[in-house]
Structures
1.
Amino acid sequence: MSLRIGIDIGSTTVKVVVLDKDNKLLFRSYERHFSKTRERACETLHSIENRFRGQAVKLVITGSAGLGVAKAAGIDFVQEVYATAAAVRQYYPDTDAVIELGGEDAKIIFFGGALEERMNGSCAGGTGAFIDQMATLMNVTVNELDALSLKHEKIYPIASRCGVFAKSDIQPILNQGGRKEDVAASIFQAVVDQTVAGLTQGRELKGKIVFLGGPLHFLYGLRERFVDTLKLDGAHAVFPEDGDCFAGIGAALCAGEYAQRPFEAFLKLLEESVDAKTTVDTMPPLFAGKEEYAAFLARHNANRPPQTDIRTYSGPAWLGIDAGSTTTKMTLINAGGGLLYTYYHSNQGNPVAIVLEQLREIYRLCGDRISIQGAAVTGYGEDLIKNAFQCDLGLVETVAHYNAAAHFNPDVDFIIDIGGQDMKCFKIRNGAVDSIMLNEACSSGCGSFIETFAKALGYNISDFSKLGLFSPRPVNLGSRCTVFMNSSVKQAQKDGASVEDISAGLSISIVKNAVYKVIRAASADDLGQHIVVQGGTFLNDAVLRAFEQELGREVTRPTIAGLMGAFGAALAARNLHLERSALLDAAALDAFSHSAKPVTCGLCTNHCSLTVNQFDGGRKFISGNRCSRPLGQEKTQLPDLMQYKYKKLRSLQGEGEGDGSRGRIGIPFGLNMYENLPFWFTFFTKLNFEVVLSPESSRKLYLKGQRTIPSDTVCYPAKLLHGHVEALVEAGVDAIWYPCMSYNNDEGIGDNHYNCPVVAYYPELLAANVPSLKQTRFLDPYVGLWRHKDFSKRMVKYMAEQFSIPAKETKEAVKAAYTAYEFYMDGIQETGQEYIDYARAHDLPIIVVCGRPYHIDPEINHGINDLITGFGFVLVTEDALSHLEGYAPRKVLNQWTFQSRMYNAARYVCTQEDMQVIQLVSFGCGTDAITTDELRDILEQGGKLYTQLKIDDISNLGAVKIRVRSLMAAMDARSLSVEKESDQRKLS
Amino acid sequence: MAELVYDETGRLLFTKEMKEEYTLLMPQMLPIHFGMMARLLEREGFRVETLNTSGKSIVDAGQKYVHNDTCYPALLVIGQLIDAIQSGKYDVHKVGLLITQTGGGCRASNYIHLLRKALIKAGLEFVPVVSVNLSGLEKNPGFRLSIPFLRKAVFAMMYGDIIVQTANQVRPYEVTPGQTDHTIEDCMSRLLEGMDRGDGLSYKSMCRNFKWIVQAFKDIPVQGAPKVRVGVVGEIYIKYSPLGNNNLEEFLLSEGAEPVVPGLTDFIIFKIYNRDVDVDLYGGLWLKQKICRIFENYVKKCQKAMIAAIQAGGFRAPGTFDDLHRLIQGYLGDGNKMGEGWLLTAEMLELIHSGTPNIVCTQPFGCLPNHIVGKGMIRKLKDDYPNSNIVAIDYDPGATKINQENRIKLMLANARALSNESAPALQPDRVPMEV
């Protein structure tokens, strides 16, 4: 047999392997290709040309970016997972499973029995690329990240589904003083969870597992997380010496079946293909030439605040701090808004240290001439910085940005801010922030994404973005979540696009993402007439140009675009009109000290991950809490209908009024059981069953069932069910009752009364995917509750078949069950009314939370209700109000009962002065793609604000707080303008 | 110019006047079936155009005018329609849009509403939208489908299915490239001409037509060894529409596989059966059930004739609806009806049973019913049929072709390995003849 060569061209690296006839490794390489895949492969082959020239070889290409190269060169291709399996079979024949992580792919191969291979879906994002991104975020190299992780003490929960989610989880932890070591390990844990959850799909990872691919080869922290999580011992966790190029080895092994040629013939094929270009989807250039660029620069640079020299100025000054997600910004202004001092820098994961250093510098420059009369802080790190340095005011980012924008353009009606990690846009109506759009976890990535890409391609960010300015053919990379863009870039690289074209394409993508994904604008007029753009990302001229091109209109970018939050905060500080700021003075700064410790709060079932910040002089600041109890204060509780319902439902277990003699029936506490439990509880207890309710949802319960989730893009409320039924099996119930329900109750307020497909059929999915259900009786018949008589008839038959229960008993139980359900619903409506009366008696504003019944689960809403009542609102829910409005035609098909309730509740809110709506939306909820627009329409036409909170498996209350606080600010502004109007009316 | 007339709910109607002046645009899904439908509508006096457009501008229009979290088919269908209107090719005041409306608990029932919202957003609210449905949902004075037309439509669907089923078995082996597609054109013309004369619109004449259609494809010279067969199932639009699935069938052919795509007839019977079985599950009028059954049985009878004709021609025939329904027992209940419901899983089972264990299960990203009936059933199928080789592929504007193709290639590599291991079991029933 001849020599065999395998070339594995991955998303970031090229691996070349040469095997001799005895499968001995003659040569191996592992090199980054910086998007020059063909060239890199050729170079490597050249380097070994002398050794193999003239020999007949068999060569095969594999790898995710190898397909195009193979096609262009006319060389055979084998699929990379298939190649890897071949190599593992050769060297570790008793392997049970392989876990391979690459630059962007995650794969699991199951051996034993039938071979099963899994690759990450298009949602799961990259792994190597993800770790790169996270390292950039923490301002360390990947190797440093690895070293840090090995010294961790605790693991934070970080979203494991998609890389971009994780960023928004990590940022608050860092900003609130979490240890870098812990975060590093948590990042690796997220990769592990993502792989295990996303790829096992019901098949257990056990036995001997071989770990392959670059990240697992080089990162010991990542290895440790895998071994720990899967509870493997040394004999069962194999990390092969050449684990980084196993796919290459496999390709070489597979090459035996393919064509043989002289070595140099293959090299020639590859070389000649280097220039072959396939078509790339391109767009018009950003600038036609240098002159156009110069005019563009001149126009924007005119928006400049006056500069005042801090060395000569004397008088009062005001400080604004924007402790953003990746950067810290500070401005010091005089009374006229003139800039005395500015600062913009990456916070390197430790905003406190940066602010401390800068404050010292400011005090030094100020000397005795300048007195700081007020200091305000905004941004993610607001609470921490405010407490650390005793700032006078903390304000929500949206308001800070509006202050600043209005300073440059008093008529501003739309503001868009793209920062390193997040994107905020909002409209200004009647002098208040309105319609906030934040990039929800899946489309974030913004500025730091370009940065990571620049680094991956070997450039720094500013050089990289400048490259794109004059690209003749920017690549069209699509406009979705940035993780998808990784693959788009991969494809463009494959097709031979230049770095310039990719750079321009990335800038345009970010803009498209903002306009179509976050704002969802159909035209420039949707945004406004006077648009102000801000945020560090807009300092990138390519992005700014792309934005103007996309909207077809000129916008305002102040020269201090990156400092607008801080500038707005400074303006707010000025408007406090204080005599003297409480900000720590120079002397106090000398004594300043800060340490942070992670703690898990044990005061309630929320188990908040707290960070306890200790400052000098015994000052303390606790973050990460949802209520005031860990701060040593009693939980103050305003009426909260979510809590009312939750307590009512949890009490529905046990024997009820029966004697439990027919056995124990388990009911999983999830999805539509939050609606129907009162019905089933009464039904079964009346029949003398004992009802066993599954435990309260928790992250632990979720993890218990995680490995049996077949579709990783389904909503979190559904995913939780896996843990619930497993817990019931463990509880040893006699049967589990979880019926399929295509139809919900008909409340006469919609065009139909369906459940969504997931709610309707999840029981059948559980039956097919949760192996432990085979140990129990899992009852999931189709039932319809809305036709009372028909239901009764069918239940009589069913209960007789299943439990030999006499017809009469079942009939009575059905009757009692309907009564109990009605009683429960009446209770919600009556209690809702009581809460409203309470609010009115105490002059409190009311928030109507519109969601699904299961959104009251604290593990699903992450304590949003506590947050809302904590801000001084009385909380009621949609089901308490929906009966107050009748049927009305909608612009969408109004066919789901739960969703119909939201429309009706919103219509009712429009008639009530003291109510506002907050809509809860579970990530991945398909029906809410339809309801959100409709609900917004209803509310805006009724003169109300629309606030949407997207929730997922990870509790990131940061974004929630921004929205709720902005809503409050907008409500204040509205009532202020109403007052003004009535004052004016009185005057005239 | 036709006057804009609205009904009492404010919906813009398609008037009789419009029928004279307007061109109706129709999104593409199944090129053969829809092509015949369009030509049938033309014969009813409508000006109809099926949109065979493709390209980035469709997705762009979709993303611009439809909520981006809505499913991909909505984005494409609406994007294709709006893109066409804005292309400058038509007088925007003389076009109307045709869109189907199924009803049912899936998001798909909302397409027509999302289309209207999108038109308003695009400043095209004066463009009438016509719902094509069998449920009597929205009515339009200018678009009334006569009973004879509906009969023609049903037969057109049957003809579409038999053509696709037989053509798919010939195309991978044709000696003269393009001959199969050419034959399809010929068959369609001949059928439509016949329909005009009133021929082919009875059960008997349909059976006669089946015979010569099958013969036409049988006559195409073929060559080569049997190829690996790959079944395609999934959400209906993504499964069939080349625009939706990035030309999946073409890709499979280029990879040396033979695509096996279950037809539309089962879906039609499935939708009728759902109404029938709802009465059993939840109660309701027996008369309604009776009417459903009459209709259901008629289409079933047609399906049986089609299967017989395919078999008589020596081709591999799909199972009947009742076969599929038998196979699904123990997997999903009869009530699972949203989207493709239990039929999707049943199709996978039928493919596995008929020697096509290699399957691409297609769906839009985040497709709600497919969480259950697609991805949710693969695990159990693998347990019960260890040789099943199913890959689930998500389609959306951000998913790249390379990623999808790579995953399909993995499935194909597995398929080849499987067929080497158990070659005899995977032999197709009809071995193409060497020429």
2.
Amino acid sequence: MEARRDVFQAIADPTRRAIIQLIAEKPQNLNAIAENFDMTRQAVSLHIKLLSECGLIEIRQQGRERICEAQLRQLSEVSLWVEQYRQHWDNKLNSLEKYLHQLQKQRKNAKRKK
Amino acid sequence: MQSEKNNTSDRELLLSRLLDAPVELVWEVWTHAEHIANWWGPDGFTNTISKMDLRPGGEWDLVMHGPDGTDYKNKSIFREVIQHKKIVYEHVSAPKFTATIQFERQGEKTLLTWHILFESREVFLQTVKTFKADEGLKQNIEKLNHYLAVQKQTNG
């Protein structure tokens, strides 16, 4: 059974985030990527496999080399979602603002009646 | 590349708003359960606050009742309370985060700053994802309601 892959799963891991960051600057092959991490080439390779399955990395054959390229379009989807979530908190402030306004008006009226 | 631990920018939200009300009133509205129930969103939700013990270590239990009847329990512990200045609470039910609300007097207005720091990037992303899924669900329900209303019209 294949686990469901998505962009959130891809970036949930700090090593995978670091890999994306690295190749976003410059596409490079597996060996060059692996040199940056304190883990086996196999471990890095597994991370890259998952990233590629999630569509965050495209692997391009260039002569005898396999070059990994970052696909950043998917990441912008995440920031869009973060923005929506932020909006949810911002709405709380909108509603606080509205309530304060309403309350002040009520109290002013109550004072006038006295 | 290992600066992740100290850098919180990928697991926090920072919001601020200049409110047209004196700090005493903003504080009052923030710290009394009967007020909070009136503005603690989101739209279409009602809130029940069974406990709000505003002091360091005090508990705060808030249940949001969704329009579809779902209850969302929120349990928090207050960590810091400085009158008219600052409230820090830890949201101990999922998703785990620490919120810091600062009140700054600006004449007759108040600058409110709301900082939400999630336990980890993982928790933050999971929260965003769940929220997105819930939003999707809400839209589905709205679509269904709309569809049913249209059906009623055509049939009636």
